[in-house]
Write a structure and sequence with these properties.
This protein is α/β, with parallel strands linked by helices. The protein folds into two domains: about 100 residues, no CATH class; about 230 residues, no CATH class. Strands 1, 2, 3, 4, 5 and 8 form a six-stranded mixed sheet that branches. It starts with a helix and ends with a helix.
Length: about 425
C-alpha cells in the first residue's frame, strides 16, 4: 500500500473512532441502581423492626438494645416524630420516624461506625450520616427546655442548693462543675489543633451537675489543645458568673451568710464563687475535713460522667463526625441522660451504678461504672496559681464552718 493510501486509511479509522465516541456521549448513561438490593429489605420489613417485637416478652433485651425502656422509647418517639418524619416521594418510600429514632439511639448506645450500623438498620451509611444528627437535634429540641436548664432566679438556685444540703451536707451549692476530654477523629487538615495533653485528639465537655446527678448546663466543642483551666473561662456561664449576672442568692439569704458557690476539682481556678480542694501534700486536719466534705458534693459530677459513658458507648471510641455534629450528638446524650434519670431511674442508673459511702464503718463502695476502663479523660490540673484574697477568704470560711457549726458527726471517723 502506497504511503498516501495508508494516510487515508488512518484518517478514516480516526474519523470512525471520533464518531463512535461522540455517539456514546449522546447516549444518556443509565444509573446502575437507585438503591443496593440488600438495602431494599427495609421496605418489606415491618416499620418497627427490629425493636418492636422485643418489649412485650423481653423488656431487659429492649433496654440493652436502646438503653431505655419501651415506655420511654414510645414517649420519645411521639415527641420527635413531627420533627423527623419525611414524606414519601414517587421515587421511593421515606425512612420512617421509628426507623430514624432506633438507628440514632443504637448509634449512641453502641458507638458502632456508620458502615457497621447500616447492616442492622438496612439504612445506607450516607443516609445515617444525615439522619442521626437530624434526630439528635430533634431530641434536643423536645427535651432541652425541661431537662437541661440552669436556674434563672435566686429561688430556683435555692432549690438546687437545698438538695445539695439534704443529700450531701453541703450548703449554698449551686452545682458541681467538671470537665472531660471526648475522644474524636480529628477533622482533615486540622493538624494538632485538637491534640490534648494526653496525646490524643479531643473536644472538651464541660458540665454543671445538680445533687441528683443531672446535667444543668453543658458546653461541648472546645478543642482539646486549649489550656484546661481556660476552658471554663470561655463559656457564657463563667462570664455571667464573673459579671454577677447569674442571679445567685445574696449572702443575706444563704446559710451562715457564706457565699453562694459551685464546687470543682483541681482543674479549675479558685474563685469567690467557686470552691476547690486545698492542694496536697501537707494538709492540716481542718483542711482535710474541708476536702472530704467538698469531695462528697463534687462526686456527683464524676458519677454523672461515669454513667453517661457507661450507658452511651459512643464515648468508648473516637467519634468520627465533624466537630459541629459531635457537639449535637454529645448534647443529645446528656439530655437523654437527664430524661432517663427522671423517668427510668431503676433501669438506667440503679443504685449499684452510683458511688456509695457507708458512714457507719467508713467504707467507700464504688459504682459499677468504675469497673470499666475510663473513657472520658479528666481535665489536667492547673499549676499553682496566684489566688485572689476574696476567693481564699471564702474557702477559709467554709473550712471553719465544716469544722465548727457545720460539722457532721461521722466526718472525723471517716477520716
Amino acid at each position: 500500500m502506497s504511503p498516501s493510501k495508508r494516510q487515508k486509511a488512518r484518517a478514516a479509522v480516526a474519523l470512525l473512532i471520533v464518531n463512535y465516541v461522540q455517539k456514546k456521549r449522546r447516549i444518556k448513561r443509565k444509573r446502575a441502581c437507585w438503591t443496593q438490593e440488600w438495602l431494599k429489605v427495609r421496605d418489606v420489613l415491618p416499620e418497627e423492626s427490629p425493636a418492636a417485637e422485643i418489649p412485650e416478652n423481653y423488656p431487659d433485651d429492649f433496654r440493652n438494645y436502646l438503653q431505655m425502656s419501651d415506655a420511654s422509647f414510645d414517649w420519645l418517639l411521639r415527641a420527635v416524630t413531627p420533627l423527623i418524619q419525611k414524606k414519601d416521594t414517587c421515587m421511593r418510600k421515606s425512612i420512617s420516624a421509628h426507623q430514624r429514632l432506633v438507628a440514632t439511639l443504637r448509634f449512641l448506645a453502641t458507638g458502632r461506625s456508620l458502615e457497621d450500623l447500616k447492616f442492622s438498620t438496612a439504612i445506607s451509611a450516607q443516609a445515617l450520616g444525615v439522619l442521626i444528627p437530624e434526630t439528635c437535634c430533634a431530641i434536643m429540641q423536645v427535651l432541652r427546655e425541661e431537662y437541661l436548664q440552669l436556674p434563672k432566679t435566686p429561688e430556683e438556685w435555692k432549690q438546687v442548693s437545698q438538695e445539695f444540703e439534704d443529700y450531701w451536707n453541703f450548703p449554698n451549692c449551686g452545682g458541681a462543675i467538671g470537665g472531660k476530654h471526648v475522644h474524636i477523629n480529628p477533622p482533615a487538615h486540622s493538624g494538632s489543633f485538637y491534640l490534648n495533653y494526653k496525646g490524643f485528639f479531643s473536644v472538651v465537655l464541660l458540665a454543671i451537675v445538680n445533687a441528683k446527678y443531672e446535667f444543668m448546663m453543658i458546653d461541648v466543642g472546645k478543642n482539646g489543645r486549649l489550656s484546661d483551666s481556660g476552658v471554663i473561662e470561655q463559656t457564657r456561664f463563667y462570664r455571667a458568673l464573673k459579671e454577677s449576672k447569674l442571679n445567685l442568692p445574696p449572702v443575706t439569704e444563704t446559710t451562715k451568710g457564706l457565699n453562694f458557690h459551685f464546687v470543682a476539682d483541681e482543674a479549675f481556678t479558685l474563685h469567690e464563687h467557686l470552691l476547690k480542694p486545698f492542694p496536697p501534700p501537707v494538709l492540716s486536719k481542718d483542711r482535710t475535713v474541708f476536702n472530704y466534705r467538698l469531695s462528697r458534693a463534687r462526686h456527683v459530677v464524676e458519677n454523672a460522667f461515669g454513667i453517661l459513658a457507661s450507658r452511651f458507648r459512643i464515648f468508648h471510641m473516637p467519634i468520627n463526625l465533624s466537630p459541629e455534629k459531635i457537639g449535637i450528638v454529645v448534647t443529645a446524650c446528656c439530655v437523654l441522660h437527664n430524661f432517663l434519670r427522671r423517668n427510668d431511674t431503676e433501669g438506667y442508673a440503679p443504685l449499684n451504678m452510683l458511688d456509695r459511702e457507708n458512714i457507719d464503718n467508713g467504707t467507700f463502695i464504688p459504682g459499677e461504672w468504675r469497673s470499666e476502663r475510663p473513657r472520658l479523660v479528666p481535665l489536667q490540673s492547673v499549676e499553682p496559681e496566684t489566688i485572689e484574697s476574696a476567693a481564699e477568704r471564702n474557702r477559709d470560711k467554709y473550712m471553719e464552718y465544716f469544722n465548727g457549726p457545720g460539722a457532721v458527726e461521722w466526718q472525723d471517723f471517716i477520716l
